[in-house]
Design a protein that fits this description.
Length: about 300
């Protein structure tokens, strides 16, 4: 059997891929462009892909394909209906990154809440050395304890974030984007009420017809001055132009791990906000702790084993 990994570079160089050699010929491509996809798959029976699009045209031309393993949870890069019609099984990986995304959520929140950028620069610029004081409270910061923390998207990751926020002493509420998630230990809110009342709001929802453009100018205007918006779901959930304007003119703070275009385009308004200290952007890394990537590869290998059985 021939197995092809189309974008192995997304796993980094520190995670072993040796397990896949047990299944047969294993071919690794660091990256695969749209134009290269059909050529790189060739006569392979199994394909591993993170973000490479596998559409109807690819499926039609790669006639030996029997299994598509998505090295992620989201499955929107594969034409699932057409794959099923052609008898091709598609398997994703779930649950591997819950701890990693939860940790990154609080990394973003604490960076913004504690004015970390300001105080780091204060010390490294020698201003502290010259101040004559043992401390600096020029930029007062608050605690998570007692804050109202709203969670948009209350699946596995949303519930994990809720547990940690509880441990910090936050008052946690949630908005279910699907409308089906319920939790007896936390308050369920409608979106507009959450935006009006919460001090910190984190997004952990998938991008779909219900969440695309969910947070725009009108919703951002409801948020308190000084409130923090964290997006660890998908870039399209928040309108980036409107968010940039809200950061500069309405006192909103934002921490983002996702953007509409990835990598982010150089002319994106978010890269040019005046109040840079109120914005933190990381390059879609919340899913990618070392431990999470190791677990992901184990899940994908098991998916192939299950298929072969």
């Amino acid at each position: 059997m021939k197995i092809v990994f189309l974008d192995a570079k997304t796993m980094g160089d520190d995670v072993s891929l040796e397990a896949f050699k047990e299944f047969g010929e294993f071919v690794i491509y660091p990256t695969t462009s749209k134009e290269q996809t059909i050529k790189h798959i060739g006569n392979a029976q199994v394909v591993l892909a993170n973000k490479v699009v596998i559409d109807k045209d690819v499926i039609d031309k790669c006639t030996q394909l029997r299994l598509i393993c998505i090295t992620a949870t989201g499955m929107n890069n594969v034409d699932l209906d057409y794959a099923k019609k052609k008898g091709i099984e598609v398997k994703n990986a779930a649950g591997y990154s819950t701890a990693s995304v939860t940790q990154t959520t609080f990394t973003l929140a604490l960076y913004l809440l504690a004015q970390t950028r300001f105080y780091d620069e204060f010390v490294k610029s020698a201003k502290w050395s010259q101040s004559g004081l043992f401390t600096n409270v020029e930029r007062p910061y608050g605690e998570i304890k007692g804050k109202k923390w709203g969670i948009i998207g209350f699946g596995t990751i949303g519930k994990s974030v809720a547990k940690v926020a509880d441990a910090f002493g936050a008052n946690v509420s949630y908005y279910s984007t699907s409308g089906v998630n319920n939790d007896s230990t936390h308050t369920r809110q409608e979106l507009n009420e959450m935006l009006k009342t919460c001090d910190i709001i984190s997004i952990h929802a998938p991008l779909n017809e219900k969440t695309n453009g969910l947070i725009k100018k009108e919703q951002l205007a409801l948020m308190k001055k000084g409130a923090i918006l964290l997006n660890l779901g998908r870039g399209g959930i928040v309108d980036e132009v409107d968010l940039a304007e809200a950061i500069d003119n309405h006192g909103i703070l934002a921490g983002l791990d996702v953007t509409v275009s990835e990598p982010i385009e150089s002319d994106n308004k978010l890269l040019h906000v005046k109040k840079q200290e109120n914005l933190l952007i990381t390059p879609h890394i919340a899913w990618a702790s070392y431990e999470a990537r190791v677990e992901l590869m184990k899940i994908v290998a098991n998916n192939i084993r299950d298929f072969l059985k």
